[in-house]
Amino acid sequence: MLVELSLLKADPLLAIILIGGSIYIIILLMYLSFQMLRLLFKR
Questions:
Q1: Which of 13, 26, 30, 34 lies 20 to 30 Å from 20, alpha-carbon distance?
Q2: Own/partner pairs, 24-31, CB within 8 angstroms, 24+ separation
Q3: Transmembrane ranges (predicted)?
């Protein structure tokens, strides 16, 4: 947590990229799990 705060102060752009990337990964995982559930319920 402290490392993230120091990164935020040092390079705002890098922090935005890291936060955006983590959000993108979370959305991607949610989407994939939703597709898996759809495949399971179709059977």
A1: 34
A2: none
A3: 12-34
Q: Are 14 and 7 in contact (CB under 8 A)?
A: yes
**Radius of gyration for the alpha carbons in the chain, expressed in angstroms and rounded:** 16
SS3 42: helix
Instruction: Report in angstroms the alpha-carbon separations of 13 from 4, 17, 18, 19, 20.
Output: 13, 6, 9, 10, 10
φ, ψ of residue 11 in degrees (nearest 5): -140, 95
Query: Which DSSP category does 17 fall into?
Result: H
Q: In the prediction, which pLDDT does 16 show?
A: 86
